[in-house]
Amino acid sequence: MTSVSKGKKKFIERGILLLSIAAAVGAVMLASTLYDYYLEKKYPNSSLYGTWTEQDVATYAAEEFVLTPSGVAINGGIVDTRYSWNGTYLEFQVGNKTRRFKVLNEELTEIQLISEPHYQPVYRLSENYKNNIP
């Protein structure tokens, strides 16, 4: 083999390697996009819209927050315009703290705060509770 053919062979090998890496990255990005699309169809954000009220505390001390298409509101003020929902966990920011909740039932009417290690209250979707949906 001549040195020119070795150089061409090495160039072709590197080109194939780069194309393979680019294809793999593209496949991962496509899979991620498709998975996000699946989650949005399977667990739409609208299933969580409403007022969430802390349970098992005095009514005057119960914390409430409202999930809407425009974000998360506490005491009438928007605290975050984006939140994450994957069908099991709801997550949003309040100041510099992340609040993470886990869904407790299939009807999506009860969630539990799990981001605080010492206090993990349960919240219930008020509209469903008022309509006697357990």
Explained architecture:
It comes from Vibrio brasiliensis LMG 20546. This is DUF2850 domain-containing protein. Keywords: Membrane, Transmembrane, Transmembrane helix. This protein has helices spanning 3-42, 126-130, and strands at residues 50-54, 64-68, 71-74, 77-80, 84-85, 89-94, 97-103, 110-113, 122-125. The chain has a 9-stranded antiparallel beta sheet with strand order 4-3-2-1-9-8-7-6-5. The protein is of the alpha+beta class and 134 residues long. The longest helix is centred in the N-terminal third of the chain and has 40 residues, at 3-42. It has 2 domains: 1-42; 45-125.
Write the layout of secondary structure elements.
Blueprint: H1 3-42, E1 50-54, E2 64-68, E3 71-74, E4 77-80, E5 84-85, E6 89-94, E7 97-103, E8 110-113, E9 122-125, H2 126-130
Antiparallel strand pairs: 1-2, 1-9, 2-3, 3-4, 5-6, 6-7, 7-8, 8-9
